[in-house]
Amino acid sequence: MKGLATDLARLVSGVRVRADTEDLFSYSSDATRYFVSHMPDAVVLPDTTEQVSKVVRYAFDHDIPLTPRGAGSGLSAGCTPIRGGIVLDMKRMRRIVDINRGNMTATVEAGVVLSAFHRAVEKQRLFYPPDPQSMDVCTIGGNVATQAGGPHGVKYGTTKNYVLGLEVVLPDGEVINTGGVCVKQSTGYDLTHLLTGSEGTLGVITRANLRLLPLPPSHRTVVVICKTVDQAAEMVSEIIAAGTVPARLEYLPQGAIALMNQFISPPLTMDGQACLLMDIDGSKTQIEEDSSEIRALSNSMGAMDVRVIEDEKEAETYWKARRNLHSSILAVFRRAIVEDVTVPRNRIPEFVRAVQDISASLGTFIGMGGHAGDGNVHPNIILDEITEETEKKAQVAVERIIRAGLELGGTISGEHGIGLHKARFLAWELGEAQIELLKRVKAAFDPKGIMNPGKIWEHGG
Amino acid sequence: MLDLRTYKAAMDKCCDCGFCQATCPVFLEDLLETHVARARMALIRACLLEGTHPVTERLREVVGRCLLCTSCVQTCPARLPVDEIVVAARHQLQQQNSRGRLRRRMTRKFMKERGFRGLVGKAGRLARSMGLGPEELPPPARKRFEELRRGVISPKGEIRARVAYYVGCATNTFYPETALDVVRVLAHNGIEVLLPEGLVCCGMPALGEGDLETAQELVRTNIRVLSRQDVDAIVTDCTSCGLVLKTKTVKVLPEDDELREQATLLSPKIHEITDYLSQIGLTEEPSSVPGKLTYHMPCHRSWTPTMDDAPRNILRSIPKTEFVEMEYPERCCGGGGTFFMDYKELSEGIRSHKIEDIDHTGARTVVTQCPSCRSYMSPMLKEREVMHPVSFLARAYGFRPDA
C-alpha cells in the first residue's frame, strides 16, 4: 500500500511503524504458521490509547483491514492478518496501571504479559487465576479477546469470569469504557462480555479492569497414577462430583508424560496408562482434608498410586513441563492438530472413548491430554508423515471429534477461540439463526468490516 | 555449525509457540517480534536456506542483533540450538563487521595472543587513562596472568587432584588477579594446577562473528594442547570459555576432522571453577567476609546442570555471608562480549534493568563469573565492587591481591 507507512508514521512516530518485508514476515502468523500465514502491509507498535485511536480512525477512513495482536501465541490464527492491512502490536502498552487491594481489582494495559501480572498481584498476596500455558508470553489483551482458559479453569473459571470492564477503541476510532471496577454492575447490555472473546473483530482492547481474589495461602501438587485411560477419565468426574475441586486437574496419558519427563526433575516413573496431575490449594487444613478425600477416592477406584510432590522446586518442574507440552509434541511429530473441543465434565469418559474409537477407525494417532477438570482434554491429531491421505484423514478426525463433542453437549472451543481454524464448524454449534445475529452485531460495531476480517464465521468479516 | 543446512531439521521443530519472547533480552528491550528467536529463525530459513526471500540489509541487521546469550535455547521447549543457527547464518552471510577491518584484525590478534601484548597493551592503558575508549573496556593489566604465573602450582600438603587451568583471554588481560585467585584457592585446597603452554582464545568472539575458519583454528590448537595434559579436570574461570570448550568444539570441527574424537573426550572434563570446587569440596575452612553480596548469573550458564547453584553453594560455605538474591539474577546484563560496542543504546537499555535490580538488593559486592558482564556492569556500579566468586572465596581465605 503506497504511502501507508509514511501516513502511519505521521500518526504515531517513525520508529513505531515497520514496513520492511522482514518485519511484515515476522507478523504474518501466530503460533499456527504451518497452517496459514499472510503478510500485513504495515505493523504499528502504539504506546498509548490515543495512538491506537488515531491508527484505527485512519484505517476506518481508508478502508484498511486492521488486526490487533498480543504475543502472537494464539492457536487459531486469530491474529493472522489474512486480508493484509495493518497489524497493531499491542505489546508496548504494558503498564500495570493499578492494583487495588481494597477493591480487589486491577487495571492493566492490553500488552501486559500474564505471568508478569501474576507476579505483581502475588507480591500483594492477591490472585488472578486464569493461567493459560503460554502465560510467560501471552498478554491480557489477547486473553480477553480469546476468552483464555488454562488449568485453573476447573476451580476458578476462565478470563470471562474476571473481566469487569474494558477500554476499547471502536472500529471508527472512538474510545469507550465498558463496565467499570465494581464487582456488581447492572447497566443494560453487557458490552464488556460481548467484547470478551470477540477475537479482535469488534474493536481494539487497550485496557482491562480485572477482578482479583485473595491468594490461597498454600498449595500442593499431587499425582494420581491410573491403570487405564478409562479409569483416569472416570476419576475426573468422580473427584468433581465429590466436591473436592482441586485448583488444577490435568489428565495426562503415558505418551504425554514421556515427553514431559524432559522437564520433570526427577522424572516421573509410572506403570499406569495415564495419570491425573493436580494442584490443591487453600489453607493448610483445607489442603490436608482435600488431599485425604482425593486419596481415599482414588484408592477406592483402584488407582495404582497417589503421590504428593512435597518439594516446591520439584512440583514446579511438573507444571513447567505441562506448559511446554504442546511445543514438545510438535518438536517430535511432523504435525499435531490440537483440538479444543470441551465437554461437560461428567461426560469426559464418554468423550475419551469416542475419540479412541475415531482414532482406531481412521488409523490416525490421536493423543489426549489437558484440562480434564473443566472438560477440556485437547485431542491431538498427530501426523508422523504428511501426505495428502494423512491430511485428509486428519480433517475427517477433526470433524468427527467435533460432532462427538457437540453430541455430548459440549462446545467446539473451550479456550483457544474460533479464529480461522474452526470457522467452518461454528454453524454446527450455534446454528444459522445465531450466526446471522452475530453478523448483525458485527455490522453494528464495524460497518466497514475492517476489524480482523475473515474470522470467526465462514466468509466472515 | 559450519553448514546452515545441517540445522534444517532443527528449524523444522520450531512450532512457532513464541515462548522465546519470555526471556530474550533483545526482544524484551526492543519489543519487536522480528528480533526474537521465532522470527529470526524463520527469516534465516526463508532467506538463507529456502531462498524464498532475498538477503537484505534488514536481514543482516536481524541476524546481527542477537547477543548469543542462549536464553532462548534454555527457554525453548524443544531446546532448539538457536545460537548455533545464528552463528551459521552469520557465517553464510560472511558478515563483515560494520566495525571495519582494523577492529577485525585487532580481534583476531587478541584471540591468537590471548589478549593485548606489548605495545598494544601499553597503548590500551594509555588510551583508557586518557579517558578514551568505552568505559566498559577496562585498561589492560600491566602484566597478564600468563606473565605472572607459569608451569605447575602445587599444594603444600597432599595432592587430592590435578587440574589444568584454562584462563579466559579477558581474565588473562584485564583481570589477572582473578586468575591468581583461582590458582591460589585450588592449591590451598589440595589441588595441583597445571598452566598449559600454547593455549589460545576459546574462539567465542570468532563464533560471534560467524568467523568459523578462525574458530576452527583456535579450537584445533586448544584441543591439541588440552588433550596432552594428564589431569583429572580442566577448569576455567570464564563461563563463556567453558560453554565453548564443553559444548561447541565438536560442532565447530568438520564432520571428518580427526580432532573431533579428542574434543568429545575432553568435554566431560571441562568445569567452571566454582562448580569444580563445589563438587570436589573445600578442605580449608574460609572465614567470614563482611558486607552484603549478590550473584549475577552469566547468560552462558547451565552448560552443566550443577553450575547454576555452585556459586551459591560456595558462598554459603563462607560463614555469616550476607547473601541477598536479586529479583532476576538470570537476567542479561546487556554486555554480550563485544556486542555492546555495536549496539550501545540497546545494551545500555538491557543493562539498566540489571543495575536497578542490583541497586534494590543494597549489596556492596556483586559476584559473577563472566569477565564481560563484570566489565560491562562496573561503570554503573560505583561504590560497589564486582568480582568473580572465587575472588570472594580468596578473600575469605585471607589472600591479599598481588601488587
Supply the key terms:
heterodimer; A: 461 residues; alpha+beta; Uridine Diphospho-n-acetylenolpyruvylglucosamine Reductase, domain 2; Uridine Diphospho-n-acetylenolpyruvylglucosamine Reductase, domain 3; Alpha-Beta Plaits; four-stranded mixed β-sheet; 15 helices; 36% helix; 19% strand; globular; B: 403 residues; alpha/beta; four-stranded parallel β-sheet; 9 strands
How would you characterize the overall build of this protein?
The complex is a heterodimer of chains A (461) and B (403). Chain A has helices spanning 4-11, 21-26, 49-62, 114-123, 140-146, 153-156, 191-195, 229-241, 254-260, 284-300, 312-323, 325-332, 348-362, 388-407, 426-445, and strands spanning 17-18, 42-44, 66-69, 86-89, 96-100, 105-109, 126-127, 163-169, 175-179, 204-211, 213-214, 218-226, 248-253, 274-282, 305-309, 335-338, 365-368, 379-383. By secondary structure, chain A is of the alpha+beta class. Chain A folds into 5 domains: 2-89, Uridine Diphospho-n-acetylenolpyruvylglucosamine Reductase, domain 2, CATH 3.30.43; 96-214, Uridine Diphospho-n-acetylenolpyruvylglucosamine Reductase, domain 3 (2-Layer Sandwich), CATH 3.30.465; 218-325, Alpha-Beta Plaits (2-Layer Sandwich); 333-407, Alpha-Beta Plaits; 422-461. Chain A is globular, with a radius of gyration of 22 Å. Chain A starts with a helix and ends in a 16-residue tail after the last helix. Chain B has 21 helices and 9 strands. Chain B has helices at residues 8-12, 25-30, 37-49, 57-64, 71-75, 82-93, 101-113, 118-129, 145-148, 169-174, 176-188, 204-209, 212-227, 239-252, 259-266, 273-280, 310-316, 339-342, 344-361, 371-377, 389-396, and strands spanning 151-153, 161-166, 191-195, 233-236, 270-272, 292-295, 322-323, 365-367, 385-387. In chain B, helix 3 runs parallel beside helix 6, helix 14 runs antiparallel to helix 15 (259-266) and helix 16 crosses helix 17. Chain B starts with 7 loop residues before the first helix and ends in a 7-residue tail after the last helix. The model of chain B has no long low-confidence stretch (mean pLDDT 93). Chains A and B meet through helix 2 and helix 12 of A and helix 3 and helix 4 of B.
